[in-house]
Amino acid sequence: MLQIVGIDIGSVALSVVVVDEKGAVVNSFYQFHRGAIADTLRSMLGTIDISCIGGIAMTESGPDILQDVPRYDTQIAMIAAVKKYHTEVGSILFVGGENFGLITFNKQGDYERFRSNSSCAAGTGSFLDQQAKRLNLKSIDDDFVRDIEQFKIIVTYNGRCFDVPFIEKHFSIRMNHVHIDLRFLLKSLGFSGGLKGCERQLGIDRGDLSDIDGYYAVILWNDYRRTGNEKKLKLLLDYNSADAKNLETLLVKAYNMNLKNTPFYESNKIM
Q1: Superfamily the domain 1-72 falls into
Q2: d(CA 84, CA 194)
Q3: Which residue from 86, 132, 160, 191 could staple onto 137, CB 3.0 to 4.6 Å apart?
């Protein structure tokens, strides 16, 4: 069954939805683009199975960055969506980074009128976002940035090439931590083949999680986003926890191996 991708590009964020031929929502994404519209859209579309896509449509609110893609009036698109998915709604209040508007319907559910803010009130959505931060109504992004800044050292596997550049770009921060990338440390000791390969070579067993890899982790996340299946989310979190926990174990093993041929091994090895 072919699916349709809908894209809305706002002044501060990107929205993407995937629907099937009957209009049922298969998946949806929302992300702040921080001005990097093309890169953010490319990242979001990268999680979609393109082989299942039969068409793409966009609203007229954003820049025309995709060629030969039909574009539709934003208000008309919102009205059509509400009449299909929320038939009892009497009005739509929408708050964007630069727009604030109200669409009302009559008692029969038909469009009545549209009112929006004046140019003097432009930036209403951004203003609300700023006030939320001042009231300490923090997002997950804020929590992560605050938490990661408390540490001086980070340990990753291939983080130099993937995790750190991704985090710096997504959160618009610079990670000036001391960074121990185990991919290169373990390679200098003769171990390679990815994180799971190094774990197996060094005798680390993940038990029931042994068959899960990075590819399957993406499938778990997409399944959870699509179905809300909490078991899929728990399995994914268990897999991620094992990743983090085993990084510590690998670091200790690498440290001891590097120390082994020195006079300081017995007094400084970590058990």
Answers
A1: ATPase, nucleotide binding domain (3.30.420.40)
A2: 47
A3: 132
Q: Give the mean pLDDT of the chain.
A: 83
Whether residue 248 contacts residue 153, with contact meaning beta carbons closer than 8 Å, is answered with: no
- C-alpha 184/C-alpha 191 separation (Å) is 9
pLDDT at 153 over 90: yes
| Domain chopping of the chain, boundaries | 1-72, 73-137, 140-266
Cα atoms in the Cβ-side hemisphere of radius 13 Å centred on 172? 8
- Please give the residue that has the higher pLDDT: either 10 or 245: 245
d(CA 47, CA 31): 13
Q: Which residues of 46-73 are buried (b: 16+ CB within 10 A; e: fewer)?
A: eebeeeeeeeebbbebbeeebeeeeeee
